[in-house]
């Protein structure tokens, strides 16, 4: 089984909540893929036309090692032409509209909304 499929099956509450908001182009028709492979990485959520990655960071992302790893990963994704926007689990669960707003802002910046 693929790593992306494993990650989809083991999604936590924050990722499930975000996916429920993103799936099927629910935000202004902007379509996302869940656990999308980009090079050697698997993005939590990716919109190919916008070249936008949404990452949901849980508690494990707070360690120094994870912060450094996330930084390098983000730099590599950006070098491939993607924009990466990160949100904490707390935002995903408590203020999910902030994710919607960030997606709309990015789409407007690119002239796609």
Concise summary:
This protein is an alpha+beta fold.
- Specify the overall morphology: globular
Low-confidence stretches: none
> What is the strand arrangement across the widest sheet?
1-2-3-4
Q: Residue share in helices?
A: 40-55%
Main beta-sheet annotation: 4 strands, mixed
Secondary-structure-derived class: alpha+beta
Taken as a percent bin, the fraction of beta residues is: 15-25%
Cα radius of gyration in angstroms: 13 Å
Instruction: List how many beta strands DSSP finds.
Output: 4
| Order of secondary-structure elements | HHEEEHEHH
Per DSSP, the total helix count is: 5
Distance between the termini: 37 Å
List the helices and strands and how they pair.
Layout (H helix, E strand, L loop, with lengths): L2 H7 L3 H10 L10 E6 L2 E7 L4 E6 L6 H16 L3 E6 H6 L2 H13 L4
Descriptive keywords:
46% helix; 113 residues; 4-stranded mixed beta sheet; 5 helices; alpha+beta
How would you describe the overall organization of this protein?
The protein contains 5 helices and 4 strands; from the N terminus they run ααβββαβαα. It is of the alpha+beta class and 113 residues long. It has a 4-stranded mixed beta sheet, sandwiched between helices. Helix 3 (64-79) links the parallel strand 3 and strand 4 (83-88). The protein is globular. The model has no long low-confidence stretch (mean pLDDT 90).
């Amino acid at each position: 089984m693929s790593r992306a499929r494993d990650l989809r099956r083991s999604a936590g509450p924050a990722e499930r909540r975000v996916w429920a908001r993103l799936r099927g182009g629910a935000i202004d028709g902007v379509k996302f893929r869940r656990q999308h492979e980009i090079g050697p990485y698997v993005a939590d959520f990716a919109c190919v036309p916008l070249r936008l990655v949404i990452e949901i960071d849980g508690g494990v992302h707070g360690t120094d090692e994870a912060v450094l790893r996330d930084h390098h990963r983000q730099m590599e994704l950006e070098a491939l032409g993607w924009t990466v926007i990160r949100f904490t689990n707390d935002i995903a669960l408590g203020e999910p509209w902030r994710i919607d707003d960030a997606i709309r802002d990015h789409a407007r910046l690119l002239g796609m909304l």
